[in-house]
Write a structure and sequence with these properties.
By secondary structure, the chain is an alpha+beta fold. Helix content is about 55%, strand content about 10%. It has 2 domains: about 130 residues, no CATH class; about 160 residues, Beta-Lactamase (2-Layer Sandwich). It has 11 helices and 6 strands. A hairpin with a 4-residue loop joins strand 2 and strand 3.
């Protein structure tokens, strides 16, 4: 579970504030009677947590929902207990009575903790459930038997245009349009598996694989975004930055380029003669970075198995022609 330092700091600061606010209003009750421990109150609290966590992650499993409810309930009990200890220390109340007040009797503090608990622990819940889903998908992928790759296409002569010929013929160009996460299957080529895998992340708006001539080999898009308007930027950004770097007289080739603007982020990764272009929402999410690395590995492995000989021949021919 990866929690940013900012989320941890917010958790601590908000928890301290929630402890301080009821201390100032104790023992004022704003017209509320002193409550008492009741199963009914606990059930209402659990129902409230269930509704909130369902809206946090509608696609989550029942187990993940129960985990969120349990985490919020535990947080509320801990905060109420600490509040009771502070009452005992500052107001000279008996420890047993103070703990009882904090946990089940002093309604203003209890209501504050119940209403705030799910929102305070939301970052932890989202990170925990995201990690659980990632582990489950990884286990599912590992447990599936791998199918042998069968090349059903006819052999083509080796040459500079051999790599991109399937793309021109439309044999390996694929496009996936989805408003939600897309499950990665094993009946597609490596390029399509990579972009579908990236598309499972909610922040990804566009993922596409582009060859060295600017042709799109596989695409995932979400919503109304037009891949034809964004894909050409993959080569354009690389060439522009390489020209700037090559002014010092060295032949520089970018391995990775990351750009952030407004509320969007572009990440371009070079894999041999292909580029992975990812357009996503601008948010700090380590899971997306991990997915980009894994998608890069998928493309690298597939291109080596599918185009290994062709890439070697093209590279050798380019080297000979340049010399």
């Amino acid at each position: 579970m990866s929690i940013s330092g900012r989320d941890s700091l917010h958790f601590v600061l908000l928890s301290v504030i929630l402890l301080i606010v009821p201390m100032f209003i104790f023992p004022v009750r704003f017209g509320l009677e002193l409550g008492f421990g009741s199963v009914t109150y606990a059930l209402v609290e659990i129902v409230f947590y269930t509704i909130v966590f369902f809206f946090f992650r509608p696609s989550g499993t029942t187990l993940q929902l129960f985990q969120g409810v349990g985490l919020a309930f535990l947080y509320r009990i801990v905060m109420s207990s600490v509040f009771g200890l502070l009452i005992a220390i500052m107001y000279g109340v008996d420890f047993g009575v103070a703990i009882t007040l904090g946990v089940s009797r002093y309604l203003p503090a209890i209501l504050i903790y119940v209403l705030a608990a799910p929102f305070i622990i939301k970052p932890f819940y989202m990170a925990f459930t995201a990690d659980s889903a990632e582990r489950e998908r990884s286990h599912t992928r590992e447990s599936r038997p791998t199918r042998p790759m069968v090349n059903r296409q006819t052999k083509s002569p080796i040459g500079p245009s051999a790599i991109t010929r399937p793309a021109r013929a439309g044999a390996e160009i694929s496009s996936v349009d989805s408003g939600n996460a897309t499950a990665v299957g094993f009946d597609t080529n490596g390029f399509e598996r990579a972009v579908k895998y990236l598309g499972e992340h909610h922040a990804v708006k566009l993922a596409t694989v582009v060859d060295r001539e600017g042709l799109t080999l596989a695409t995932f898009k979400r919503g109304e975004i037009d891949p034809e308007q964004w894909a050409p930027f993959s080569l354009l950004f690389q060439e522009s930055n390489e020209r700037v770097l090559n002014r010092k007289g060295e032949n520089t080739r970018l391995d990775q380029l990351r750009l952030s603007f407004n509320d969007l982020r572009i990440e371009i990764t070079n894999i041999k003669d292909f580029s992975l272009f990812v357009l996503s929402d601008r948010e700090d999410d380590d899971l997306l970075k991990i997915r980009i690395v894994q998608a890069t590995d998928m493309i690298r492995k597939y291109s080596s198995e599918r185009y290994g000989n062709l890439l070697s021949a093209v590279t050798e021919e380019q080297h000979v022609s340049n010399t």
